[in-house]
């Protein structure tokens, strides 16, 4: 997954900059278009990023006219994002530019075979990653058992001190 993600990042980065978008803003734009109505809080959950980072990316998209950001009817604290025609056009421009750059980077002889083999491998990797062994970059507890026992004890002892103070129960 990482190599294909890195390749996509490299192929799309130049056009993202030309459009004035960050990779996070691009991700939110893409998810908003996929869902047709995407909640800002979902972006926070999916990325694991701080509230201010996601809010800043959503505000950038709204100022640029790529999405509309409105209060959700049932709860005014929640923001719902909807795509605009301009946002769909910008997303398509970025993706088609990345596809052109990929096409230019593959030698002409054997291009169809090479690209179709790479696509099959990426699809196979995607099926594996989205199957029962799906992992997230935000799964930070995966390697806890591999740490030496002395380190695990130190981590466990240190964790409550790093978190928020617990609320005292009402008497």
Overview of the structural elements:
There is one protein chain. By secondary structure, the protein is mainly alpha-helical. It has a domain at 7-105: Arc Repressor Mutant, subunit A (Orthogonal Bundle). 62% of the residues lie in helices and 7% in strands. The chain has seven helices and three strands; from the N terminus they run H-H-E-H-H-E-E-H-H-H. The protein has a three-stranded antiparallel beta sheet with strand order 1-3-2. Strand 2 and strand 3 (79-83) form a beta hairpin. The longest helix has 21 residues, at 85-105. The radius of gyration is 21 Å and the shape is elongated. It starts with a helix and ends in a 9-residue tail after the last helix.
């Amino acid at each position: 997954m990482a190599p294909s993600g890195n390749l996509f990042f490299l192929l799309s980065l130049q056009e993202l900059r030309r459009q004035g978008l960050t990779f996070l803003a691009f991700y939110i734009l893409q998810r908003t278009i996929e869902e047709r109505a995407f909640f800002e809080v979902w972006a926070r959950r999916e990325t694991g990023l701080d509230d201010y980072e996601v809010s800043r990316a959503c505000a950038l998209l709204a100022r640029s006219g790529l999405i509309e950001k409105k209060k959700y009817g049932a709860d005014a604290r929640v923001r719902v994002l909807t795509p605009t025609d301009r946002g769909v056009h910008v997303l398509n421009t970025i993706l088609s530019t990345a596809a052109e750059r990929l096409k230019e980077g593959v030698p002409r002889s054997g291009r169809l075979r090479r690209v179709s083999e790479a696509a099959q491998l990426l699809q196979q990797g995607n099926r594996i990653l989205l199957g029962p062994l799906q992992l997230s970059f935000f799964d930070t507890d995966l390697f806890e058992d591999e740490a030496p026992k002395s380190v695990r004890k130190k981590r466990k002892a240190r964790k409550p001190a790093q978190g928020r103070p617990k609320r005292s129960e009402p008497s």
